[in-house]
Write a structure and sequence with these properties.
2 copies of one chain form a homodimer. The radius of gyration of chain A is 17 Å and the shape is globular. Chain A contains 3 helices and 8 strands. The relative contact order of chain A is 0.17. In chain A, the strands form 3 sheets. The first copy, chain A, has a 4-stranded mixed sheet with strand order 2-1-6-5, covered by helices on one side. By secondary structure, the first copy, chain A, is α+β, with helices and mostly antiparallel strands. The first copy, chain A, is 16% helix and 30% strand. Strand 7 of chain A pairs antiparallel with strand 5 of chain B.
Chain lengths: 137, 137
C-alpha cells in the first residue's frame, strides 16, 4: 500500500507498459481541449516522441513505429506529456495545423451514439480535408 | 478496403472489444474538456452505462463491473458517447460535481513530464478533496 501511494504521489516517471510492451496515449489539442485520437506507444516510440518533440506511436497493425504525419504531413507538435495516477496511460497535449484523422476529420472521434439508442451513430463533425488528396500515391 | 471504409463512414455502432473483451474508454469533462480518467469497459459495462446514464467500467484488477462513484459518490453523468474511426476506443463526455481521481485530484492526469526531462514529473494540479475522508470505512 505504501508502495502504491508512492507510485501515485512521487515525481518519478515510470510508465507502465502492458504485456505487449505498449501504453495507451491520448492526443489532445493543447489549444481547444479536443481529443484528437487514441493510440499506443512502445518504449521506443515514447523515447522518440520525447527526443523529437513530435508524436510517434507504435502501429499495432503494421507492427512498427509510426511517426504521426509521416505520410500526410499532419504532425503533432508535443507541448506537454501527462501521465495518470497509476502511470499506465499518457496524454499528449499537442499543437496541430491540420486534420488528424486519416478519414478526413479533425479528430478520430467524429461520431457519437444517438440519444436513446445503443446502435445508431450520428456524425458530429464535418471533414476538414480530402484524404484522397492527402494520401494519394 | 470497401469494408473498412464502411466501418469508418457508417452509422452503425459496432464497438470492437479486444481479445480480453475490453474497449478503452476516456472520460472527458463535458463542460471544461479536461480528460478525467481512462479506463476499460466490457460489453456489460457499456450496456449498463448506456441504460443507466452513469459511467460504469470494468475493473481489471478486481475483475468485476465498477460503477464509478459507487464508493466515493463521485459519479459521472454521461452526456454523450463518442467512438473513433475504427470503433476501438470510446470517449464519455460526462458531467461531474466532485474530483474523479481516487488520489484526490479532479483528474487522474495530475502530473506532467518536466520539460527537457524523460524521468521527472511535476504536479500540475492541487487536490480537490481528501481521499481519506471520502474512502474511509
Amino acid at each position: 500500500m505504501a508502495k502504491k501511494q508512492n507510485y501515485e504521489e512521487n515525481k518519478e516517471f515510470i510508465p507502465k507498459f502492458d504485456e505487449n510492451g505498449l501504453i495507451p496515449a491520448i492526443a489532445q489539442d493543447a489549444r481547444t481541449g479536443q481529443v484528437l485520437m487514441a493510440a499506443y506507444m512502445n518504449h521506443q516510440a515514447l523515447d522518440v516522441t520525447i527526443q523529437s518533440g513530435y508524436a510517434t506511436y507504435y502501429s499495432r497493425s503494421r507492427q512498427k513505429l509510426w511517426k504521426k504525419g509521416e505520410e500526410s504531413g499532419h504532425r503533432q507538435k508535443v507541448q506537454q506529456i501527462l501521465v495518470d495516477c497509476d502511470q499506465d496511460c499518457l496524454i499528449l497535449k499537442v499543437s496541430v495545423d491540420a486534420g488528424q484523422c486519416h478519414v478526413g476529420y479533425q479528430s478520430c472521434f467524429y461520431r457519437a451514439l444517438k440519444k436513446n439508442s445503443n446502435k445508431e451513430l450520428v456524425f458530429i463533425e464535418e471533414k476538414v480535408y480530402d484524404p484522397e488528396e492527402v494520401y494519394k500515391k
